[in-house]
Amino acid sequence: MAHFLLVHGAWHGAWCWQRVLPGLIQAGHRAHAVTLTGVGERAHLLRPDIDLETHIQDVIAAMDAEELQDLVLVVHSYAGMLGTAVADRRPERLRHLVYLDAVLPQPGESWSSTHASATRQARMAAAQADPLHSFPAPDPAVFGLSGADHAWVQRRQTPHPGGPYNHVLDFDPQRVASVPRTFISCTEPGLSTIDVSRVRMVDPTFWNGAWLPGAKVLEMKTGHDPMVSAPQDLLGLLLDVVAPQDGP
What we know:
Elements lengths: L2 E5 L13 H6 L3 E5 L17 H14 L5 E6 L3 H10 L4 E7 L16 H13 L4 E2 L11 H10 L3 E2 L11 H4 L4 E6 L8 H6 L14 E6 L5 H4 L1 H12 L6
Parallel strand pairs: 1-2, 1-3, 3-4, 4-7, 7-8
Antiparallel strand pairs: 5-6
């Protein structure tokens, strides 16, 4: 039995894992999904002082409350910042870290560091104009969603706190790289704000050579929300992470 903790990206909540969680549990594993402060069913807690550290502590608090050890931590999109921080601070608690089409930062970068200037300016302007310092969700079409899936995500998304956007994360790449890692790249369509991470995940010099060859890189031919658009395929990849490996 493995322990999974699933962490959503921006504008989402624990709700986005509804099509994946049952399969993990039916396969005999413990599985939990955390909702970050200020979004999803915790949108009523949105406030101007939420920052990256607030969300890092959300994840660590969930690990502590569920007494999770030997943990498979799955982090989607923005939550790549959070998974990196947890692997830096609690590497002994992690069995595997799965970056699901996620931000893959360098030390000293923020979530916004790799975004196009127009994206940064638009999000910062929206946050500054909002009394609660948040910026609105995009149309789920950018995640490759249509029809009922598009409608489901659109009505559930909530504004995301603006504080984490420019909050710099410092960490030790060697310590993070001590945790087995998998990057799952979602390419049809690929989300432009993850493009830099796609380059980094196959760069042998990234993190001064610590990222590869220790990390595994996989591809899903679906959009940025695979837990919605291709949940069974995603479930299979997550179960493979904890499947016994054949010997030589």
